[in-house]
Write a structure and sequence with these properties.
The chain contains 12 helices and no strands. It has about 325 residues and is an all-alpha fold. It has a domain of about 180 residues.
Length: about 325
């Protein structure tokens, strides 16, 4: 009887997991369509030129690739996180304090996302994947869907500590999907500053516009997805969009194309070129795992080197 009850319980939990994911999709898709449609109309009637047809198609193409990897790896990720969940031994029970369980999980997941995002920006190996998200010179809600195609291959690694601490793998993945909603909505130029307490705690459109800027002053700032708190704590926060320095979206060296292969692999191609240089092994390792822009001869520069150069002018 106990075994039968356990099996029945596991099916109920699995069923509820699938149901809430379907509900999330059913709720979010119409919201995305309405909000993006409203921004397109706003852009058209106000002559803002936020959107272009090729930009929208490029963003859809990249998110479809990302979703394909995500779905293909989902079973493996849940299995691996399940091993970590069992090994941790805590297995927190949300029945006793469901609100606290979800609040703590959301904060912890956002904290780990901050570090994933920060590594993506400061290690060229991971930047080669993440750069697709930043390669658009347009900035609108569909850029939120301009996904880092290969991110699902390694994203789950950052969720391992959460699973060890007793949070169910299915809950971790659902929380990530849920917080991604906010991560989509901050990709807009149509919204200005929000209420000060929100600006102080949350990642807002104003904060994230800075994150997508290619201006030297703004590079590698405001990494948070849900909370801006982590940037304030760990030195990556930029408060204001400076009126004297309008934001330029895209990369410091834009690719100027929506070619389906180039968008995904252009930085890998650049890494390959650098690895072919006749340099020491430690330099080759830096070209692969050092910060983007690093070079052994100063021919290209990292964001911190560019900032230092600007400061000394």
């Amino acid at each position: 009887m106990v075994i039968a009850a356990d099996v029945a319980g596991s099916y109920l939990v699995k069923g509820s997991d699938e149901l809430r994911e379907r509900l999330l999709i059913l709720i979010t898709v119409p919201i995305y369509i309405i909000v993006i449609g409203a921004e397109i109309l706003f852009s058209f009637f106000k002559e803002k030129k936020y959107y272009s047809g090729e930009g929208i198609l490029a963003n859809i193409y990249l998110t479809v690739l990302n979703m394909g990897f995500d779905l293909a790896l989902r079973v493996f990720c849940l299995w691996f996180l399940g091993i970590c969940y069992d090994a941790g031994g805590l297995q927190l029970n949300m029945i006793w304090a469901p609100a606290l369980y979800w609040i703590v999980l959301t904060v912890f997941e956002d904290f780990m996302y901050y570090w994933e995002h920060r590594v993506d920006h400061f290690c060229r190996f991971f930047w080669a994947s993440h750069v697709t998200h930043h390669s658009s010179e347009e900035y609108n809600l569909t850029v939120g869907f301009r996904s880092s195609v290969f991110q699902p291959l390694y994203r789950f690694i950052y969720f391992i500590p959460i699973a060890f601490l007793g949070f169910r793998p299915e809950d971790i993945m659902f929380t990530y999907a849920f917080t991604q909603m906010w991560g989509i909505f901050v990709h807009t130029q149509a919204v200005g500053k929000l209420w000060k307490p929100i600006e102080y705690v949350m990642c807002t459109p104003s904060h994230h516009r800075i994150h997508h800027a290619s201006n030297v002053k703004y590079l590698d700032k405001n990494m948070g997805m849900l909370l801006i708190t982590w940037d304030r704590m760990f030195g990556t926060f930029q408060q204001e969009e400076e009126a004297y320095e309008p934001i330029k979206y895209g990369l410091t060296n834009n690719i100027k194309t929506v070619h389906p292969i180039t968008m995904v692999f252009h930085e890998w191609k650049n890494i390959y070129k650098d690895l072919k240089k006749p340099v020491k092994l430690k330099h080759k390792l830096m070209y692969m795992f050092g910060p983007p822009g690093w070079s052994h001869d100063g021919s290209t520069q990292t964001s911190s080197q560019m900032r230092e150069k600007e400061k000394n002018k």
